[in-house]
Design a protein that fits this description.
single chain, alpha/beta, FAD/NAD(P)-binding domain, 3 domains, five-stranded mixed β-sheet, five-stranded parallel β-sheet
């Protein structure tokens, strides 16, 4: 079925970026937009909605506030509408729980008629319509397989990122090796094992390790944390350091040539990556308390260690590890492995389900 309306914008994917754009465009009555996502509904990193885990950015960096502080889809208006404004005020913190952010985003979605879930964009072509060149967008209903055609002046790809797992770590039994993106659905099974290894050095690794460390008292597993990084780096949160996210610095950065920008990214590592100070403090405090009575014997934290390979061996997983500073290689067995190996951009390039054929005007905004 073909629609005759030519929209100002069609968004592919409904993550935080496109959801923020949809919320901002909703208040512009002169503009018409549609946003499609093949998932059944909005759910922001559901596998990592661990209790007591927080966003790494303040609540003011919500979907709309920096662009429009008066927008009705702000986080502050959300807590007001939930009759939680005073509770949030007494909370006296800028960072908010991940679970609350997810609920806030769902609240925004529920109010936007432009957001459509269970709809997969499968084809984007430049096409002439009513005498002008626009984009012809083919959308498939995931439930019924019905096809609908839409036209738009602009396309915004907000297709986000997907879990990154190095090829050499994919040889394990998939029931026993879990990426952090799928951690929560498998958490009980992981905790009921005899030995667990967490691999990675970022915030996700730290949050999973802390939850497993906290719950270890109720189970009987050994817990190991491996990271190839030399240290457990703390995220730079100093006020002057955060200025790199200001519009002034962003304009300066994009004014540099490509090679200079690549060099700058290396220097900006500590403000872009790392573990929140509070998470590291909680881990150390818990470890210290366990050590008082010698209850830390089943806990290992080891940096400078690269996991080179994971191979399934019956009900166990065999990890080949390299302590790269000493150049010592050894194997370690575990029943469960949690990979906190990060994410990679998911950019449709025409080789997958979504086919894009244009002169390069498709706007790719990945967040």
């Amino acid at each position: 079925m073909e629609k005759s309306t030519v929209y100002d914008c069609i968004g592919v994917g409904i993550g935080p970026f496109n959801l923020g754009l949809a919320a901002l465009m909703d208040t512009q009555k002169s503009m018409q937009a549609l946003f499609f996502d093949k998932e059944e509904g909005f759910n922001w990193h559901p596998g990592m909605l661990i209790e007591q885990s927080d966003l790494q950015v303040p609540f003011i960096a919500d979907l709309v506030t920096f662009a429009d502080p008066t927008n009705k889809y702000s986080f502050l208006n959300y807590v007001h509408k939930q009759n939680r404004l005073y509770q949030f005020y007494f909370f006296r913190r800028f960072d908010i729980p991940r679970r609350e952010y997810n609920l806030y985003a769902k609240w925004v979605v529920d109010q936007l008629q432009s957001c459509h879930f269970g709809k997969e964009v499968i084809d984007i072509l430049e096409s002439e319509h009513s005498g002008e060149m626009v984009y012809r967008v083919k959308v498939r209903d995931v439930t019924t397989s019905d096809i609908h055609i839409y036209f738009s002046k602009h396309i915004v790809l907000g297709t986000g990122s997907i879990p990154f797992i190095p090829e050499n770590l994919k040889k394990g039994n998939q029931n026993n090796v879990v990426h952090t993106s799928e951690y929560l659905p498998h958490a009980n099974r992981i905790k009921n094992s005899g030995s667990i290894v967490v691999v990675g050095s970022g915030q996700s690794a730290a949050e999973v390790f802390y939850e497993l460390l906290e719950d270890q008292k109720d189970y009987d597993y050994t817990l190991t944390w491996y990271t190839r990084a030399a240290t457990f780096s703390q995220l730079e949160m100093a006020k002057l350091g955060q200025e790199v996210f200001s519009p002034d610095y962003v304009r300066y950065f994009h004014g540099l040539d490509y090679e200079k920008r690549k060099e700058a990214l290396e220097r900006l590592h500590t403000v872009r990556n790392g573990v929140d100070r509070d998470t590291l403090v909680r881990i150390y405090d818990l470890l210290y308390n366990r050590s008082v009575e010698g209850r830390d014997k089943k806990i290992t934290i080891q940096p400078l260690t690269e996991v080179e390979e994971i191979i399934a061996n019956g009900h166990e997983i065999e990890l080949t590890c390299l302590q790269w500073e000493k150049e010592e290689r050894y194997t370690r067995k575990a029943e469960k492995v949690v990979l906190a190996t990060g994410y990679k951009p998911h950019i449709p390039d025409g080789s997958g389900t979504l086919r894009i054929n244009s002169s390069g005007k498709v706007r790719r905004n990945i967040r």
